[in-house]
Structures are given as C-alpha cells and as structure tokens.
Design a protein that fits this description.
Layout lengths: L10 E3 L8 E3 L2 E2 L2 E5 L8 E2 L1 H6 L2 E2 L7 E7 L4 E9 L4 E2 L5 H15 L20 H7 L6 H7 L23 E4 L2 E4 L3
Parallel strand pairs: 4-7
Antiparallel strand pairs: 1-2, 3-4, 5-8, 6-9, 7-8, 10-11
Length: 185
C-alpha cells in the first residue's frame, strides 16, 4: 500500500540478496534503500561490521543504503551496506606498514623540545613533555601534569598561597570475574 505522506514509502521490489521480492523504502540513485531494522543482518553489513568480521568490501558496490536519523545532530544518515558473501578477507599487516604505524605512534609520544620519549601520548597543542613545560615557563594546565606527577593544579591560581586538596594517586587495577579489584602497590 503506497502512502503519499511518507518521504520513503514501502515498496515491494527485487533485491540482490534474495530470490524473492522484499519490502524496501524504494531506491536512491539506483541503490535499494532500507530503513533501520529491516535489512537481513546475516547477509548485509556496513564497512565497520565487515572489518569486525575480518572482511573488507573488496571492490563491490553497495548492495543497499541504510538510512536513519542521528538524533543528537537531527540529521539523516546514509550507511552503505555490502553483501557479506562477496566480501574478501582483510589484507594482512605487512612489516613496512607496521613500521610506519610504530613511527607515527612514537611521534605522538616524542617531546618536540627535548626529543625524549614521554611514555604517554602528549597533548596535541605543542607536544611538550612535563619537564620542558616547566623549563619554558608554561603553566601546568593540562591532564598530563596530574597524570605524571600526581600533584594538584589550580587553574584559577592568582599568585596567592591557597591550600589544595591532595590528588589521590591512581593505582593499577585488574578485572576479575566479580568485577574490578585494586592491586596492592
């Protein structure tokens, strides 16, 4: 039954994943359009879902488009759906690609001032380690200060001596079957 009030009315048509006609929401640019929850999850998947299965689209065109509304931004979103049976396995990580990723991650941890590896990813603004921040006279106004030193900072410090509450040091934790358990340091 066709409804004239809907933007995408129900439509019975042939689809690539079934021998029988299926109800869809029409087409968009020649691709079958599906609304949330009506696509067969065992035959169609998005790129991220394929990746989680260890697959990639492998050059195939999308078999369908899934449309839904993203409520926080009040926008309509279209996601490409691919046939799982035509997907190919993900290419294995080569030594060159792994080396390039290791270099990129090391660059995020390297201080631009002294060149030392900080051991943690440095903030994007400046990529300067904590000792170099003090040397340069920069205020310790980011999360890294508390993380590395365990001392409190006062973002509203105006030069007066004020008493701040001590920062509780972070203790490593492990998960058990019953939940989180603190490890004695």
């Amino acid at each position: 039954m066709m409804s004239r009030n809907r933007r995408y009315p129900w439509d019975l048509r042939e689809v690539p994943w079934s021998d029988l006609p299926q109800f869809t929401r029409g087409t968009q640019d020649g691709t079958v359009l599906l609304s949330w929850g009506i696509g067969p999850r065992d035959k169609l998947a998005t790129r991220r879902q394929l990746r989680a299965m260890g697959l990639r689209p492998g050059g195939q065109d999308p078999a369908a488009l899934l449309y839904f509304r993203h409520r926080p931004s009040c926008r309509q979103v279209l996601a490409e759906l691919f046939l799982i049976e035509h997907a190919k396995p993900v290419r294995p990580m080569t030594p060159a690609k792994r080396a390039a990723l290791d270099r990129a991650m090391a660059a995020r941890r390297t201080c631009r001032q002294c060149g030392d590896d900080a051991g943690v990813e440095l903030p994007r603004n400046g990529r300067v380690c904590e000792p170099c921040r003090y040397t340069l006279g920069l205020a310790p106004d980011d999360y890294l200060h508390d993380y590395l030193t365990g001392t409190p900072i006062d973002p509203c410090h105006d030069g007066r001596d004020t008493e701040l509450a001590p920062v509780v040091p972070i203790t490593p934790a492990t998960t058990t079957g019953a939940g989180w358990k603190e490890v004695a340091a």
